[in-house]
Amino acid sequence: MQYSPSRPVRREFLVFGSPAVTQREIDAVTEVMRSCWIGTGPRVAAFEEQFRRYTGARHALALNSCTAALHLSMLAAGVGPGDEVITTPMTFCATVNAILHTGATPVFVDVDPATQNIDVSQIETAVTGRTRAILPVHFAGRPCDMDAITRIAARRKLLVIEDAAHAIEAAYHGRKIGTIGDMTCFSFYVTKNLFTGEGGMVTCADDATAARIKTYGLHGMTKDAWARYSDEGFRHYQVVLPGYKYNMMDIQAAMGLVQMPDIEKNLERRKQIWRAYDDAFRELPLSTPAPEEPDTVHARHLYTVLLSLPDLKCTRDAFMDALTRENIGSGVHYVSVHLHPYYRERFGFAPDRFPRAADISQRTLSLPLSPKLGDGDVEDVIHAVTNVADCFAK
Ligand SMILES: *Cc1c(COP(=O)(O)O)cnc(C)c1O
Questions:
Q1: For the whole model, what pTM was predicted?
Q2: Which atom of ligand 1 is found nearest the CA of 187?
Q3: How many angstroms does the Cα of residue 34 sit away from the middle of ligand 1?
Q4: Contact present, 210 and 70 (Cβ < 8 Å)
Q5: pLDDT in tens, 244-260
Q6: Among 28, 239, 300, 358, which residue has the least CB neighbours within 10 Å?
Q7: Could you confirm whether domain 23-261 is CATH 3.40.190.10?
């Protein structure tokens, strides 16, 4: 069946995940350009310091992506060939690619159907003599069960490296995400809660780990490149390992710095939108996100619904196409990593190897969720979803 509304709910297409660029970001970036210190410099240092204070972590190290943050966290911990890292298949491919880049093997554990986070009750059976780390992903901004994860890690002597790409604002049992695991990795990609275009951050408590990540992130050099040419005079650097080119630029940090003071305000706005969606979709043939667990803060990065396909005469993709015809953009988070050809072929995964992640992959749909949305935009999304669901309802 072709869905074709006589008139879409809105004239202009609502782009999913479009960043809320304001004059402040434009001014901040322009100022950096005028200063001519556009590479890694004082703004990166200031952004690291503000982020460190926000999370309460001992160290915060800026990099050019969360992928780089994950990669270096594992390298700094000595994870490499022959090692195994336990993670979730319900994530962006970067989580798993970062494991593969170290030479280690990803070992997937299926998700909890309610939270869509790693099912902690299945982690311990996945631990082997080769396991070095657990890499939980705080899916959509909902903190994982960190008590269970840190307990298993302590018992089996494993590292905990968190993918908090969705979870800058999240907290668990009174502790900010970024202060619980051995290392926590954040993303400032265009679509994320705080954006710098490309960008990432690692937080950690261990001084030696922080020093290794810093060295690995800039060619393996022992001194900051930006300090080399400062007015303190020329200083020699030494290369102590074959590092990477993962540093953040001041142009990027300038965007992060202007957004830091608004983090909580933006979360509050996303919460309002979240509640409006929850209220509006109660009677529709889909399930809305589970409420947040007690004594946790959900960072509300993605509002994902699960379509009840038996009650609809359409697929998820047809539902998304219909939303597009209503001029509403949507997203899929995610098609489970084990269903993508590379991992499927390399590890020989059948779809039902991780049945919950496979089921979510077919039914999940993310709706626009951004402080950029006005009340009218939120109404448009609600109308479009309601129209499409009504039309396809059996
Ligand atoms: C966005 C994202 C990443 C990668 O972040 P980059 O900063 O783009 O490298 C990793 N994991 C998850 C869950 C993500 O959503």
A1: 0.97
A2: 7
A3: 30
A4: no
A5: 999 999 999 999 999 99
A6: 239
A7: no
